[in-house]
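User: Hey, quick favor. My workstation is busy. Could you predict this chain's structure for me?
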Amino acid sequence: MTQSDGELDSLVRKRIRALRVAQGWSLEELATRANVSQSTLSRIENGRRRLALDQLVTLARVLDTSLDQLVETASDDVIISPRIDAAHGLMRWPVKGDPGISVMRQRMTEPPPDNPSRMRAHPGREWLVVLSGTATLMLGHRRFRIETNQAAEFPTMLPHAIGAEGGPCEILGIFDRDARRGHQRDGDSDGSGGSGSGGKGVGSECGPGGPCP
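Assistant: No problem, here it is.
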């Protein structure tokens, strides 16, 4: 289903107001920043003035967004099914709004490696939350215990690996483009599909510290 011109027009006006409110700005403050009159901005938000391209470009810039995002139409393709690797207890979802980011859910059963040489380091950042159980994150020379519902975020230039502690655990991880590429290179270089954890369910595709597909 595509949106009519009238629906899109209304959506753009609502976005402008929502972005202004999110910034904590009054009509007067946004109008000053965008170099338009307060009455003009009020009519734009309330649908009493035609949306002009030059004004939309200026408003998008001032509101710290892009024109494309400001006029983006709604998509019916909202539900995303995961890619499943049943052998490693792994599910992965792409992020359509930013193809460089991947979201991964994985079940881990083994602890991280004792040997620092099996830890990985590469450009990027990773973020993860433990959904159940307890995980251990090895980060450089430090060891972190991550309990259920706790999260961790770290630069992947630090040697790192993650595994289960005291029984299976499930994690949800988010990888930026550089972190995912780094895991791909690790997986290609050693051919093991390992994460530096040395355990089944830890080093499978796209796992923290492990290669992505």
